[in-house]
Amino acid sequence: MHEIGQRIVSGKVKPGDVLPREETLAESLQVSRTALREALKVLSAKGLIESRTGVGARVLEKRHWNQLDADVLAWRCASMPTDDFVDKLVEMREVIEPAAVAAAARRRTAEHLAEIDSAYRAMDAAQTLDEWTAADLQFHDAVLHATGNELLQSLFSVIETALGTFFALSARTAANFKYSLPHHQKVLEAIRRRQPEVARKAMQALIADSQANLQQSRGRARARKKAGA
Amino acid sequence: MHEIGQRIVSGKVKPGDVLPREETLAESLQVSRTALREALKVLSAKGLIESRTGVGARVLEKRHWNQLDADVLAWRCASMPTDDFVDKLVEMREVIEPAAVAAAARRRTAEHLAEIDSAYRAMDAAQTLDEWTAADLQFHDAVLHATGNELLQSLFSVIETALGTFFALSARTAANFKYSLPHHQKVLEAIRRRQPEVARKAMQALIADSQANLQQSRGRARARKKAGA
DNA sequence: CCCGAGCTGTTTGTCATACAAATCGACTAT
DNA sequence: ATAGTCGATTTGTATGACAAACAGCTCGGG
Q1: Which of A185, A208, B1, B175 could pair with B39 in a Cys bridge, judged by C-beta atoms 3.0 to 4.6 Å apart?
Q2: Chain A residues touching residue B64 (CB < 8 angstroms)
Q3: Which residue of A has its CA nearest to B94?
Q4: B88 chain-A contacts, CB cut-off 8 A
Q5: Which residues in chain B are closer than 8 Å to A155, comparing Cβ atoms?
């Protein structure tokens, strides 16, 4: 599934193309037709392909892809982490997270707050980059959970991918990986005090700061590339 | 797939439960194990279940469900179109659409505008409720498309479900089903003139109006229920 | 009495094969 | 020229068999 999914998402096969017939595809991937079909069925569920009897499996247009699917996002990141795509991930965060944190500040229960607080303390206590990353993800997930709207929470896969890409691109060191802790604290406090608009502003600042950091990394990356060339 | 998916989403089997083994399940559904396995694989991709060898297929917690999946949304609507769930759909629209229309007003191309305009004219020309519904969906899809962010466009399944549920609940008549046309016109004009904030406000008004209409329907439904009881 | 290692039964994961159903394209008869 | 039909191709489904992995039990040791 991953093999074929990546081929499609990376553009090796384009929308409109039809895949080879199942028998040959199965042979070329060294699996049985049964296993291949289960993979194709999942790709079909993700909106990447459509199988029709007598014709074959046709790659659908991007329009139909389930772009918010965790796998599809991961494949896109693996094949083309272009600036363009990262900008789109940032835009999604700008839409989702401020609205979500405002809702969370309005409706949070004591349990939700405890969850967010726990994640914050884990971020504060993090010793390694991996610990920090895990706690950071937990923080943003807890905020979405606190909205009480599971539809919003399902957008976590987007935030997860966005943060993951961010970490990958901005090669942070042990010295500075905690730089955004104060921003997170402001968000936490606004939720604690049930101040939706304060929370929204704090989250916007957090994302803006994160984006600025990303731009900086891009600048450094381009400079290195230029110097190397 | 739909049968088992509905059983899970409707709560007939709860998170933590394990499904019967594949052989008996296949027999009870009158299909082969092959076909059943393809269905389970898709449900697994949607995050509803997790299969482990030697144990069986366990229903995952709602936390892991891919709630934005078109099928999952449809199953929820089919089994429990409660006020609570409709409110969550409305909240999603309140988050997504104003932000999306603002982005669309900023970045739209001539082609995008033509698409939206075409949908608007179809709404204006609609003679039947079905025609109107199709054009309305096309309008909102075109707006998402105009953002140029395919991640945002993938949220169309949510808007689609929300509007579909809305139409189902509010049993509109031929006389009044076009009442929201002026709101759509304001949105269209703001996008044409590239006025992001005007567009945002217009979309907020459109959704608010739609929600008000929904509340009214609920009131009538409750009144009928009370009178009948 | 408690605990861990190994064994065994159960269930999913994969495979090979066969056939039914549906579709497309070419051919034929009107 | 066109409509209908036939056949080749490909997916959809079914069946039977075996490999792999896990849960719980049993048994031996401390």
Answers
A1: B1
A2: none
A3: A99
A4: 149-151
A5: 68
pTM for the model stands at: 0.88
Q: Are A10 and A75 in contact (CB under 8 A)?
A: yes
pLDDT in tens, B15-28: 999 999 999 999 99
Residue range B2-64 forms a domain whose CATH class is mainly alpha
For A26-42, the three-class secondary structure string (H helix, E strand, C coil) is: HHHCCCCHHHHHHHHHH
CA of A40, C1' of D7: distance in angstroms: 28
pLDDT in tens, A35-87: 999 999 999 999 999 999 988 999 999 999 999 999 999 999 888 777 889 99
- DSSP per residue over B179-225, as a string? TTHHHHHHHHHHHHTT-HHHHHHHHHHHHHHHHHHHHHHHHHHHHHH
According to DSSP H, which parts of B10-69 are helical?
A: 22-28, 33-45
Contact B151 A34 (CB under 8 A): no
pLDDT of residue A177: 80
A142 CA to D16 C1', in Å?
Answer: 49
Mean pLDDT of chain B: 90
| Mean pLDDT (whole number) for B143-155 | 95
Contact of B49 with chain A, judged by CB distance below 8 Å, is answered with: no
CA of A50: nucleotide with nearest C1'? D11
B62 touches chain A (CB under 8 A): yes
